[in-house]
Amino acid sequence: MKKIFFLFLIFTVTLQSFAQDIDESTRKKFSIVFDMFTDIWVDVPETVDVRTINQGMDVAGYYDYRFGKSNFSFAFGAGLTSHNFYNDAFPVTDSTDYTSLVPVGELYPGKNVKRNKISFSYVDVPIEFRLRTNNDFRGALGFKMGFLVNTHTKYIGDDYIFNTNDRIRVKFRDVDNIESFRYGVTARFGWRFVNVMAFYSFTGLFKKGKGPDLYPVSVGISLMPF
How many domains, the chain? Predict the structure, then answer.
């Protein structure tokens, strides 16, 4: 998570530097959006317990093209999004290259999980059709597609490796069969720089036919300070 946060920081600073370097007339057309959200997971296997809050974050820079003197505009840009899927199961890939989510207690009876998650991050290309009224009400409907840049698991709980009484922290990179390309629809509504946002992914966490068909629906708060 520290490395992902560091990437977000670099990406944000780069966007701010870009915004400061462009001229005033162009700057009015450039915006930076921060999203803080939770993922609601759909079609999770019944044997897997999922945490209620699965926090994630997103930062994106947009160039906004206004349609004449109307309140409508078209925006496009680039962003970075990080998701977390907190659960009590390990991704296990069998000899047919199919990845299943198997509860830790089933794999290692008697072992308790404090925290366990699959994390995955995408570089996104978003587009939006925007409305901004004279009283600063904002609304946007859009679409974004993304390319996988990082995935890993992180486990905190009873020692299942050496079977001791200790609590361990284990992190594994590159989870098998995570979908490398995703796309979905977005929505954002609010007043001035505070908005509510939603993202519905048309693609699942795992590649089709290579893992469970579970999908994230992201809902949260969106900030547009620039």
Answer: 1
